[in-house]
Amino acid sequence: MAGERFDPAKADRLLAPDRKALIDADWVADLLELKDGDTACDLGAGNGYFTLPLAERTQNDVYAVDVEPEMLGLLGVRAMEAGFEQVGLIEATLEDIPLPDDSVGGLVAAFVMHEVEDRVQAFREMKRMLKDGSKGAIVEWKKEEFTKGPPLHERLESDVLVADANEANLKVMEVINLDHVYVVLVRNE
Question: Is 151 left (phi over 0), alpha (psi -120 to 50) or beta?
């Protein structure tokens, strides 16, 4: 069962200063090793905490995918204010993303996989979109009590995401454990 969707009324929390202490969006974007001409994608983009750092690393398109139109609206305003005209907004689920095969040079899916109904299908979509050799960074909450994030029963152990990625034929490069969160780094081969 998927977790409850994030409430757009709480969107300001996603940009709070303590978020950077939890997970640095620039560091995550650097993990992808994007080149200037790469297309990037932020899955479950919310209001753009990870989207804008991706846009700083490429002049090409950066697609922000989210199911909540209100969150995409907030992201659109932030992207325009920051001068990132290459950010495109896509309202979609992670299980059915309207982007072409082999079109993305790197992607982030942060704090969203616990909300996805069919995670293996979402990973299949990532594999389908990622160019050969391209990376994805999947960021999630550790399954531990913590004052931020979803309730404990909605959190996923990293081995669950590793198994889902493997089932979708994405190569898991490593699992990076941080305080309260982890990153599953994948590559399309």
Answer: beta
Question: What domains does the chain contain, in order, with CATH numbers?
Answer: 31-168+176-187 (3.40.50.150)
Predicted confidence band at 153 (pLDDT cuts at 50, 70, 90)? very high
Identify the pLDDT of residue 21.
73
- pLDDT in the model for residue 10: 55
Q: What's the pTM value of the predicted model, to 2 decimals?
A: 0.90
By the 8 A CB rule, do 67 and 109 touch?
no
**Adjacency order of strands within the sheet including 171-177:** 87-91, 62-66, 40-43, 104-110, 130-141, 181-187, 171-177
